[in-house]
Specification:
alpha+beta, Thrombin, subunit H, 7 strands
């Protein structure tokens, strides 16, 4: 799938959960048969209760399992309502989510666009993420994040 093919499909055809344009620092580690890769830092482009879209310098394989870390802005930044401001990792709340690569496609810039599906997270991280999603009307009770 190319970036153009993905962008040409409507969200209704592709996703169960609404997403909003956002600028968030994210990092991930690939989990593969007990091996864990080094952290790779990227930027998320959109976010919802079921997953996100990120840019990656590295190609990722479909169905690759990741430990994804979202760096969520603190409440005082969220109160401003601007999801496009880049908040430094040091000023953010780190939330780890077990995730899966849903798709990956080359981007025009030479990087890759990667669709990430959230699978599971612990209770404390679930609380942080749910609070963030509620602030931006992205919470979805049937999301795997709430079970």
């Amino acid at each position: 799938m190319t970036e153009e093919q993905f962008r040409g499909e409507t969200g209704a055809e592709r996703r169960r959960f609404e997403r909003k344009t956002i600028k968030l620092q994210v990092s991930y580690r690939c989990l593969d048969r007990g091996n864990i890769s080094n952290d790779k830092t990227n930027l998320a482009e959109d976010l919802g209760a079921g997953g996100l879209l990120m840019h990656s310098k590295h190609a990722l394989e479909k169905d690759q399992i990741l430990m994804l870390t979202l760096f969520l802005p603190p409440a005082e930044e969220r109160d401003k309502g601007d999801l496009t401001k880049d908040i430094p990792k040091e000023e953010s709340n780190a939330v780890e989510i077990l995730s899966r690569v849903a798709w990956s496609a080359p981007a025009k810039t030479g990087s890759h666009m990667v669709g990430i599906q959230f699978l599971d997270l612990d209770q404390n991280n679930r609380k942080w993420l749910k609070e963030f999603l509620v602030d931006f009307s992205l919470d979805q009770p049937d999301s795997p994040l709430y079970t």
